[in-house]
Every structure is written in C-alpha cells, then in structure tokens.
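Researcher: Here's a chain I'd like modeled. Treat it as a single chain, no partners, no ligands.
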Amino acid sequence: MFRRRDSMSPDLPNGELSSSQEVTTFLQRLPHTDKWRYHGKTVMLMDERTISQAEHSGLFLEAAKGTKFIGSPTQGANGDVTNLSAPGGIYVRFSGQGVWHPDGRQLQRLGLQPEIELRPTLAGIRAGKDEVLDRAIAYLQHGP
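Model: Modeled as a single isolated chain. Structure tokens:
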C-alpha cells in the first residue's frame, strides 16, 4: 500500500494529517494468472545493503509466495523519489510517499525484517563460507 500527501497542505504537530489535507492511497495488486506457478518454498537473502527496489521486490515476493527473509534487516528506504531544485544549485532528493506491507505493517525506516536473522561472522568469512546462504539452503531443505 502506498500513501502520498499533498505537499502544499500544512502539517499538524506530531506529523498528523489535517482533515483538509489531501492524501492519495493506492494499492499495487498481483495480477491473477492461470499459468503454472512455482509451489515450493522461497527465500530472499538480505542485509543492510538491501534498499529501495530490492525492498519493493521483497514485498511482492512476500505477498505472492510467503517468501521467507533470511539475513539482517534492510534499510527501510523505498518509495518514490522526489527531486527538488532549490536556488543556488542545491538539489534535494527525498521519498515523498509512504510504503506498507500488504497487512499494514510499516516498511519505511524499519526495513524488511528477517524471519531468520543471521549475519556473516569473521570466522565464516575467513573460512570462505557464506553462512547466510548456507542457512537459506538448510531452511529450503529441512525447514526452520
């Protein structure tokens, strides 16, 4: 679900919306299909480098298949980018729209949260192992 406020409407204290403030809300739905679909378990590996479109893709995977997230929380920085040119050659970019999980949970500033939280360790890196990938494979083969 996405929400965007009218940028010309004044804010109330604590970020509340005034009764006259325009808010556009829209849903992105998965299209219905009669074509073959994969029915096995799916996972998405993620960490703090996962941002923007990758988070949005995660929302779709979660909604479409119940994809399990493995790794560490993402940035929580997706949403449409608004560009603003100010006098003096100053350029500002910011997200001008809120994004939520299909069930209404907040995404921005919180990120996608892993069902199985795991970070690479120094010992694993030194041993040439990808511990997050290894855990994802174990989940797919044997479950949680």
